[in-house]
Structures are given as structure tokens and as C-alpha cells.
């Protein structure tokens, strides 16, 4: 029984390590060869995990072999576009200048309902608002609005919003995040003093984020929202 437990734990760790080594994209949308790899990995790992009589190497060696093959396919895909198109397919434009390309839908074996579902997933309830839509190689649908339906840009309105970068979460669930706070150029003493002026402590804050305009947003424990200027825009360091 203990041997079976150890085998299961070891194979689970091997599976996690393999998926991490394959890269971040394995955790998102799959290319066809990546989906096949994931299915086969699960099958290869499950056999020695279920049966103690199956040698552990019978599960580990095929996983290593598939890892090598997957790496070779990935490298070849990065180097040769034709090879990538062969194993992953090409993006296909299914809406062009607002008109649905029925032949492309038939070629991709997509129904009109599938297209409308994908457009809703992209944030469009009305297909008439879509100027261009593309079925990507991984099967997702990317949609762009028609030129007369898109929001106006700040440059077109002669508005200068300034630099907008990634907000830093400085408190999460009552705990100060020292790495993020360090990137802002501030320290825990500064944060505690800032909160103390408002009768708060880090433990009473559920979430605190500091944006690149110097604004602090606090979500308090038990409810309540506060926003205020914590830094002058010129003091922003990231």
C-alpha cells in the first residue's frame, strides 16, 4: 500500500515537472500536437500509477521520449513556418470587412452557431459590430470591431492620459507584499504610516493596490472601498 502511495506521488511530481518544462502555453489554449501530447501523457502516467506490477520505468521512459519529441516539434515550429502550419494549422479570417466568409466556415467545420458563440466570448453580442474575425490556429476566435463601431482613442480626442503600467498589489488578504512594495520604491514603514493616517492597519485591508498614477485603492475587510492619492505621479518608480 505504501509503495503504491509513493509511486503515485512520484509520478504526480513527474507530471507536474514535465508540464512546467513544456512551457506556459501548455496551461492555456492547446495547439493540436500539444493536446495530443497532454492526452498521451495522462495515459502513460496512469498505467504504472494504477498497477504496482508495471515497472516504474515503463511510465517514465515514454514520458521522457515524448518530452524530447515535443521539444523537437516546438523548435522546428519556431524555425520553419511551413512546418508550424503543417502541425498547428494557420489562422483563418472568417469575417472580412463585416461579411461572414461561409466557405471558410465550411472548411473549418464551424457552424454559424459556433461563430456566434465565439463572438460572444470575444465580447460581441451583435455580429454586425464586427469588422474582422479570425479563427486562430488553437481554435479560439479573435474579433475586432468595425472602424465605425470602435471606441475613440485618447489621441483622437486630444487627451494625454499619461503613463499606465501594471498596478502593484502591496497588501493581499491582510499581508504586506514586500517584493511588490520594494518595486514601488517604498517600504513597510511608509505603507503603515499611510494607512495609520486613515485609522487602518495592514491586517484590516483585504486588498491594496497602487497604480502608476500614484493612486491607492483599498478593499477593506468586511466591505468598504477607499481610493486616494498615495504618491505624486513624479514619484512613481516602476
Task: Supply database-style keywords.
238 residues; alpha+beta; CRO Repressor; 3 domains; 5-stranded antiparallel beta sheet; 4-stranded antiparallel beta sheet; 8 helices; 9 strands; 42% helix; flat
Main structural class: alpha+beta
Tally the helices. Answer: 8
Order of helices and strands: HHHHEEHHEEEEHHEEE
Strand composition percent: 15-25%
Query: Could you give the count of β-strands?
Result: 9
Count of the separate structural domains: 3
CA-atom Rg in angstroms: 26 Å
In whole angstroms, how far apart are the ends? 53 Å
- Proportion of residues in helical segments: 40-55%
Q: Please mark out the parts with pLDDT under 50 across 5 or more consecutive residues, or reply none.
A: none
What form results from the Cα inertia axes?
flat
Overall residue-averaged pLDDT value: 84
Largest sheet: 5 strands, antiparallel
The side-by-side strand order for the widest beta sheet comes to 6-5-7-8-9
Amino acid at each position: 500500500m505504501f509503495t503504491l502511495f509513493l509511486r503515485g506521488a512520484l509520478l504526480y511530481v513527474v507530471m507536474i515537472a514535465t508540464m512546467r518544462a513544456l512551457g506556459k502555453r501548455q496551461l492555456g489554449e492547446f495547439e493540436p500536437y500539444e493536446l495530443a501530447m497532454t492526452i498521451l501523457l495522462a495515459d502513460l502516467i496512469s498505467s504504472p500509477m494504477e498497477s504496482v506490477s508495471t515497472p516504474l520505468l515503463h511510465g517514465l521512459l515514454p514520458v521522457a521520449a515524448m518530452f524530447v519529441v515535443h521539444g523537437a516539434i516546438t523548435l522546428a515550429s519556431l524555425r520553419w513556418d511551413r512546418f508550424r502550419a503543417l502541425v498547428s494549422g494557420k489562422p483563418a479570417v472568417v469575417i472580412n470587412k463585416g461579411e461572414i466568409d461561409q466557405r471558410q466556415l465550411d472548411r473549418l467545420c464551424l457552424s454559424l452557431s459556433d461563430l456566434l458563440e465565439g463572438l460572444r466570448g470575444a465580447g460581441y453580442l451583435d455580429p454586425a459590430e464586427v469588422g474582422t474575425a479570425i479563427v486562430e490556429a488553437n481554435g479560439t476566435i479573435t474579433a475586432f470591431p468595425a472602424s465605425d463601431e470602435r471606441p475613440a482613442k485618447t489621441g483622437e480626442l486630444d487627451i494625454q492620459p499619461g503613463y499606465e503600467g501594471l498596478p502593484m498589489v502591496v497588501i493581499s488578504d491582510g499581508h504586506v507584499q514586500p517584493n511588490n512594495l520594494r518595486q514601488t520604491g517604498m517600504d513597510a514603514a511608509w505603507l503603515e504610516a499611510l494607512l495609520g493616517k486613515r485609522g487602518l492597519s495592514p491586517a484590516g485591508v483585504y486588498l491594496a493596490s497602487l497604480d502608476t498614477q500614484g493612486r491607492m485603492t483599498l478593499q477593506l475587510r468586511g466591505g468598504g472601498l477607499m481610493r486616494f492619492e498615495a504618491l505624486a505621479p513624479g514619484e512613481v518608480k516602476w
